[in-house]
Amino acid sequence: KPSPPFLTSIIPQDQTPPPPAMGDPQYLVGSPRSNLERDGRDSAAFAIGINLMLSFVYDYLPYSPVSPTPTLSLAGALWVSDGVDRISRLPDVLLRDILSRLPAKDAARTVALSSRWRPLWRSAPLALVDSHLLPDGGAAGQFTLGAPSPRAVTDAVSRVLAAHPGPFRCVHLTCSTMEEHRGEMARWLDVLVAKGVQELVFVNRPWPLDLRLPATVFSCSSLTRLYLGVWRIPDTAAVPRGARFPNPLELGLCFNAMEDRDLAFMLERSPVLEFLVIMGSQTGVRLRLVSQSLRCLQLGYTYLEDIDVVDAPRLERLFQLGDFRQSELTAPSIKNCSSKIKIGRAPNLRVLGYLRPGEQELGITNTVIVVTMPNLICISAVSINNNANL
């Protein structure tokens, strides 16, 4: 995916500030906003850092299953010029399937075609992507921090969610500055829980970075895919014990602030989860992996203090891609720390990588490997259990 033009939208290219001096770095990862403001960080350089982080978040989000600008091939199409509307003669089940593959705005417009189409929009599983509601259909890429929050898009999302009875095939909400629309944000989640949504991508456009996600999301039992970006995860200690994600196969956590227990809670309450993505984290987190279903764990530009694979019988791949720790945006408390990966029971693990020299230790049962090779290494085709010998 191409990254959004986060630099040129804030300051002209010929005025881009030089990198911060080593004695006065513009820390981002691992530093609360209050400290940054108190220390008088340069606002332009700070905005660049925030938008850099957002670009990584957007790159890790899944593609929308619908597009406002699809590429269609008409080569070989058989055209019949008798003027008969054959599409409208198709069974309702096929027409609803067609509508579910259209952007919400285009699907709603079909009610004007004929009386045959009017009830179909309300009975088809809807795909709602807020960037498709922009005048250019989102062609310019995601909004940056300095761009105004699109109030018209926020209002349109509210109208669509209120008008359609559900269910929703997918809902991607990434355009609104949620701090400015807290009331709408809470109502959106209430509606999606009540009407049912299968795929939800929900991203807060900061600031603030630590806006707390409503706990309502833990009540959405219809989800099969969930991505959360730039939130403070609700205090799971206060979430009802019966709350769970019974159906999600894929969970993505992108640059959220969360505690160890919050991550453990989400894994424990996702009994069929197969794919877990953790992209960045505003706080150091220890991952203790106990899952009977997880097959792939992907960590991108993130810092986990410890990764402990306790019992993951179906885990096949554990990837680490990128690292914030050597960036000028990273606080020393994280930059100078090392992390440990401990593999307990993972009999189907085939791919493990990458490991960075001097920054990570790998432990397999009672054996500890300190990475000292000058290049990144990847271990593949390994099978690990409690009795493994390296």
UniProtKB/TrEMBL annotation:
**Per the record, a Pfam family?**
F-box
Top-level taxonomic group: Eukaryota
Q: Which residues form the F-box domain?
A: 84-120
Extract the Gene3D superfamilies matched here.
1.20.1280.50
Region named Disordered:
1-25
Transmembrane segments in this chain: where?
none
Q: Can you name this protein?
A: F-box domain-containing protein
Organism the protein comes from:
Aegilops tauschii subsp. strangulata (Goatgrass)
Task: Tell me the lineage of the source organism.
Answer: Eukaryota, Viridiplantae, Streptophyta, Embryophyta, Tracheophyta
